[in-house]
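thought: user wants a sequence for this fold. calling inverse folding tool.
action: design(structure=
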């Protein structure tokens, strides 16, 4: 008997995010912007990809929800709302030493796209700092005290 399971990618990304953060390193993700649902500042896209610093100290707030990562960050002084479906993440790694994992890009099928649009509840990890998030910044970021809240 074959049981169809959901993608393990959200679990892997959240686990690597926690592991990298717990080791006081900076989690970066490589995003394929051609995946349906990816919402990123296009001015910072190169070859269909963008690299994002998703550390709690570098973003205004971050939500690692069941279907996507949502965050707010400043690019060139302008606050941007960013949405990254887990399927669009090609890698997650620590900036300082490159340790992490590569992941397969997953393009959603039409049925999954409709289901994603009905999801509304997320858990949010919010930080008081609202630092800029250039794609390849070597600038040290301030660590904000994260807190959890449910967003509906």
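)
observation: tool returned 152 residues.
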């Amino acid at each position: 008997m074959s049981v169809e399971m959901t993608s393990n990618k959200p679990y892997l990304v959240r686990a690597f995010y926690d592991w990298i953060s717990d080791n006081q390193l900076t989690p970066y993700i490589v995003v394929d912007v051609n995946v349906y649902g990816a919402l990123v500042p296009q001015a910072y896209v190169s070859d269909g990809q963008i690299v994002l610093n998703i550390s709690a100290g570098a973003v205004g707030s971050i939500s690692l929800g069941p279907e996507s990562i949502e965050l707010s960050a400043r690019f060139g002084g302008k606050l941007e709302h960013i949405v990254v479906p887990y399927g669009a993440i090609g890698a997650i790694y620590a900036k300082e030493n490159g340790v992490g994992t590569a992941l397969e890009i997953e393009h959603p099928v039409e049925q999954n796209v409709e289901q994603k649009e009905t999801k509304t509840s997320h858990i949010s990890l919010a930080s008081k700092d609202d630092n800029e998030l250039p794609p390849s910044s070597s600038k040290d970021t301030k660590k904000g005290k994260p807190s959890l809240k449910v967003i509906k």
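thought: summarizing for user.
answer: Here is the designed sequence. Strands lie at 27-32, 49-53, 61-64, 68-75, 78-85, 89-94, 100-102, 122-126, 147-151.
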